[in-house]
Amino acid sequence: MLTDPSIEKLKAKGASPYDVTVLVSKRARQLTEGAQPMVDDKNVANVVSLACCEIAQDKVVAAEGDQEVVVPITREERIRREEEQKERERRAEEARLEREAAYSAVPEAEDGEEKADDSALDSLLATVTGNIEEDGEFDDEDVEPTEEDLIDSDEE
């Protein structure tokens, strides 16, 4: 139960209790996502209580209409987001290199068309689907036909 600040003190900060509830909710969401607290958060139980304290001390106020708000984040959150971005970039680069290696495994024929090399295609297909038998050959028994495959076979 919220005792500090009091509910009556919070009600005075908005046009209606609903407006205050929405403001507390939005601020609590920002704090959960790593926003920098604007008051001392040592003795606060949770982010909702922290949001209420910020509103009661007029550190957070409601604004009319749609506003472009920049919410400062903590140093730890900024570092976490940067590491997350680097990890996404690393995975994208690995996927790109794997695709390039798979595409380069298919040799070209003399007329410029790609020549179908069964072993390279099997390897590519096995890599994509993860169906490799113990002897290194592609195992197509575990692959379920798609709806399109079934429709195509009915038409033939």
Secondary structure: elements and pairs:
Layout: H1 7-11, H2 17-32, H3 47-56, H4 75-104, H5 118-129, H6 147-155
Helix pairs in contact: 2-3
Which runs of at least 5 residues are low in confidence (pLDDT < 50)?
none
User: What characteristic shape results from the CA principal axes?
Assistant: elongated
Termini separation comes to: 70 Å
- Averaged pLDDT, please? 78
- How would a crystallographer describe the biggest sheet? none
Main features:
156 residues, elongated, 2 domains, Eukaryotic RPB6 RNA polymerase subunit, mainly alpha, 0% strand
Note down, in words, how this protein is organized.
This protein is mainly α and 156 residues long. The protein folds into two domains: 1-73, RNA polymerase subunit, RPB6/omega (Eukaryotic RPB6 RNA polymerase subunit, Alpha-Beta Complex); 75-155, no CATH class. It contains six helices and no strands. Helix 2 (17-32) crosses helix 3. The longest helix has 30 residues, at 75-104. It is elongated and about 75 Å long. The mean pLDDT is 78.
